[in-house]
Amino acid sequence: MTIQKKTAIGRAHSKIILIGEHSVVYGKPAIALPFPTLEVRSHVVEISGSIVLDCHYFTGYLEEAPNMLKGMAVCIAATLKHLQQPAEGLHIQIESSVPIGRGLGSSASSAIAVVRSLYRYFEQELSKVKLLEFVHMAETFAHGNPSGIDAAAAASDVPIWFEQGEGFPIKIGRPLHLVVADTGRMGETVEAVESIRKRRLASPFGVQQSLDLLGDFTIQTKEALAEGDFLLVGKMMDAAQRELRKLGVSDAGLDQLIHIAKNSGALGAKLTGGGKGGCIIALASSLEQAKVLAEELQRNGATQTWSYIVE
Fold first, then answer.
1. Are 96 and 55 in contact (CB under 8 A)?
2. What pLDDT digit, counting tens, does each position of 51-104 carry?
3. CA 282 to centroid of chain Cα atoms
4. Among the listed residues 230, 220, 215, the one whose alpha carbon sits nearest the alpha carbon of residue 173
5. Cβ neighbours around 48 below 10 Å, total
6. Alpha helices in 105-144 (DSSP H)
7. Contact indicator for 67, 57 with CB cutoff of 8 Å
8. Are strands 90-96 and 52-54 parallel, antiparallel or unpaired?
9. Reported pTM
10. Pairing of strands 160-163, 176-182
């Protein structure tokens, strides 16, 4: 007779920052979108002995996890402590289609999936507040001083307005067609954030002006999204990219893909996430044009592309 082992699964999707990255660190608003095309799955299975973590980067005992997974280890330990469960007897397997270091919320979505799987394994109800609390622990290791937008967006099934640590649902007047293109290079979020901090100390007026403009563009984008005015959304994306370039977080690879997107008819295009590598997003006028943009971007340097609809 085969004894069925206890098991549970938790899932989470990726996220995209439409506008407001970096300025959100300084109290400005940002708009983030769920990106369900890419997701993370955490599978918990009952075993004997110490906790085993099994993912693309490491397979072994949780206490022996490398530095890049220390945030996840802390997150798991804190979750189990809150659940009043021993830190043993679990095999946690993480499967992810979210590329790491691309500004798409890999660390946040992984932590969300794991916390959800642990709560389901122990048959406990998980509040959103508690979920974000645990995920923040993992994000602190990944990003130093995270704004919280990655976790909030990856935990939301709808577009959100994020400001001062809180996310609120926002209205999209009609379907939004987006293309995400990967430079193939890991972004440097911590380095990018630190570079802006140093620029702000050296040239406070110029940097603050860019941050203020990014905040204004985000407000205008929210209104344009609600009205379905995607020509204005595209203009705001282009304007935001100009300020991000001034702030030094774009680079030649990102600029090249943005140039290709615009020349191929994108309504707007900009980097998404921390910058200095990672991904760009381009706004298309239709599903058909999104497919054309994705093909052109992949033909001209993007290592992979995804087109999807936000409703």
1. yes
2. 999 998 899 999 999 998 999 999 999 999 999 999 999 999 999 999 998 999
3. 16
4. 230
5. 7
6. 106-121, 128-143
7. no
8. parallel
9. 0.94
10. unpaired
